[in-house]
Amino acid sequence: MQILCEVSLSLYLAADNPFDVVRQPEVCGRCQGRNGFHRHGVYWRYVREVRCKVARFLCKGCRLTVSMLPAFVLPYRSRLVADVDRYFDAAAHVRREQSGADTLRHYWRQWCGHAATVRQTGWPAVRPLARDPIGFWRQLRATVGGIAGAQVRLVRHFGLSLLRRYACHRVPSRMRHAETPGAGGRFGHPTHPLG
């Protein structure tokens, strides 16, 4: 399982040990055990020219391993969230000139294909939700003050990352009741919990 944690790039890289800047999970997404995690080592992530350690925890109850990925990193991608955000927000002629444009162009195509799935969550609570991918991207970013924060909320509450759905981001069972369709809309809540 992977949890995204909000921490700045500079703070994270300044720390020798990722356990100094991330907290262990409070509740296990599988067995619902509380405070049953212990440190379970680190693994290295390479994102562009940045090499960072990612903290891992192990649930004592069910042996689930949880990685605490910093939100400035896109899951399973080689670019920083800030790079992707700048590319998506740039004018078309500027995009072509940016370094690494092929990779970022690929991410843009993934977002265009995935935006409708993210839009189906009903979040953010801005109405109307933009139909075009760049307008919707900007709404997500504006809602929480940055695209990294939007990614954290999407993963935490809906099990979706920005570019696709991954099994490691499944929503814990205690939150699945919110996904039951009902009178309040697709997810059964008339007032969206994320605002």
| Binned strand content | 15-25%
Rg is 17 Å
Instruction: Give the biggest sheet.
Output: 4 strands, mixed
How far apart lie the N and C ends? 26 Å
Describe the fold and architecture.
Helices cover 33% and strands 16% of the residues. The protein is α+β, with helices and mostly antiparallel strands and 195 residues long.
Any key phrases for this structure?
4-stranded mixed β-sheet; 195 residues; globular; 16% strand; disordered C terminus; alpha+beta; 4 strands; 6 helices
What is the fold's blueprint, element by element?
Elements: E1 2-5, H1 9-14, E2 37-47, E3 50-59, E4 65-70, H2 81-89, H3 92-97, H4 101-119, H5 133-144, H6 147-158
Parallel strand pairs: 1-4
Antiparallel strand pairs: 2-3, 3-4
Helix pairs in contact: 2-4, 4-5, 5-6
Short précis:
Helix content is 33%, strand content 16%. It has 195 residues and is of the alpha+beta class.
